TrEMBL record:
One of its GO terms (molecular function) is class I DNA-(apurinic or apyrimidinic site) endonuclease activity. It comes from the Bacteria. Its EC number is 3.2.2.23, 4.2.99.18. PANTHER family: FORMAMIDOPYRIMIDINE-DNA GLYCOSYLASE. This is Formamidopyrimidine-DNA glycosylase. Residues 2-131 form the Formamidopyrimidine-DNA glycosylase catalytic domain. It catalyses: Hydrolysis of DNA containing ring-opened 7-methylguanine residues, releasing 2,6-diamino-4-hydroxy-5-(N-methyl)formamidopyrimidine; 2'-deoxyribonucleotide-(2'-deoxyribose 5'-phosphate)-2'-deoxyribonucleotide-DNA = a 3'-end 2'-deoxyribonucleotide-(2,3-dehydro-2,3-deoxyribose 5'-phosphate)-DNA + a 5'-end 5'-phospho-2'-deoxyribonucleoside-DNA + H(+). Monomer. Gene3D superfamilies: 1.10.8.50, MutM-like, N-terminal. Keywords: DNA damage, DNA repair, DNA-binding, Glycosidase, Hydrolase, Lyase, Multifunctional enzyme. InterPro entries: FPG_cat, FPG_Glyclase, FPG_N, H2TH_FPG, Ribosomal_uS13-like_H2TH. It comes from Jeotgalicoccus aerolatus.
Length: 287
């Protein structure tokens, strides 16, 4: 699943569609079949309502909160938002022609096509169809945003991080599970949790209450470091993550522990399922 750096990169690469107007919306048969079966596949709104709300709106701004993208769209009568999550394998492409999507799987599994007033198309593809898209008049109406911690770049983020980890809710949790909760810090998933904890020399299985403030502050620094490194390297492409232009990231070549057999110092790594995800760690370097 794309984590904060990958979603931030997609947001940045979608900049060319800002100030363009959506003139038409086409949804895939997968979406129509899913809704007919009561599954609300990808588009969580009523499909006719979604198309009616979005068509004719100008994309005024594209933002990100945690692992979510949001599009501020407006016309002379209404301003609203499309909130989008990429799920496990979602990807956006800006193309002049549908055949400009080079990878067969992404071309086959297109889900939403927004035609823009400059003739280009903004295509959302999703191979596994775990992504989501829905509209909200206000972002405050979307519960995950209301609960979400400040972004790691916010001046209050470190204070919030430390104070929230000291709350009763997180005291007994393994630290890896805690930092993957958006109420603590947004956008940390399985990959960057493992990498950050290794760099901070903290075992992912260690309960939050047993970690000092100093070490938790160091962990915040390492999360920030890993995010920034991933942004500079185009994100991590493990399987399905692609940039808007179809490119792959390079961060996977810099992993210290994730999907590795040994840590950088040559120690054999352990694996354990934490928070339903396989976790890589070194019992020599981490304590």
């Amino acid at each position: 699943m794309p984590e904060l750096p990958e979603v931030e990169l997609v947001k940045q690469e979608l900049a060319p569609v800002v100030n363009l107007t959506i003139t038409d919306v086409v949804l895939s048969n997968y979406i129509y079949k899913g809704h007919a079966a009561g599954k609300r596949t990808i588009v969580k709104d009523d499909l006719k309502s979604f198309i009616d709300i979005v068509t004719g709106k100008m994309i005024a701004h594209i933002g990100r909160r945690g692992k979510y993208l949001y599009f501020l769209i407006s016309d002379e009568f209404q301003t609203t938002h499309i909130v989008s999550h990429l799920g496990m394998s979602g990807a956006y492409f800006i193309v002049s022609d549908f055949d400009d999507i080079k990878e067969a799987n992404f071309k086959k599994h297109w889900q939403v096509i927004f035609t823009l007033n400059n003739g280009q198309k903004l295509v959302y593809s999703d191979i596994r169809r775990f992504g989501e898209m829905h509209t909200h008049d206000s972002l405050h109406d979307f519960p995950p945003f209301a609960r979400m911690a400040p972004e790691y770049t916010d001046e209050f983020s470190r204070t919030h991080f430390l104070q929230t980890l000291r709350s009763k809710k997180f005291a007994e949790k393994p630290v890896k599970a805690a930092i993957m909760d958006g109420e603590v810090i947004p956008g940390v998933g399985n990959i960057y949790a493992a990498e950050s904890l290794y760099l901070a020399h903290i075992l992912p299985t260690k309960k939050v209450k047993n970690i000092s403030d100093k070490r938790l502050s160091e962990l915040f620094e390492r999360i920030t470091e890993v995010f920034e490194l991933s942004l500079s390297r185009g994100g991590s492409t493990i399987s399905d993550y692609r940039s808007v232009t179809g490119g792959k990231g390079e961060m996977q070549h810099s992993f210290k522990v994730y999907q590795q057999d040994k840590c950088p110092l040559g120690h054999e790594l352990k694996t354990k399922v934490i928070n339903t995800r396989n976790t890589f760690y070194c019992t020599t370097c981490q304590r």
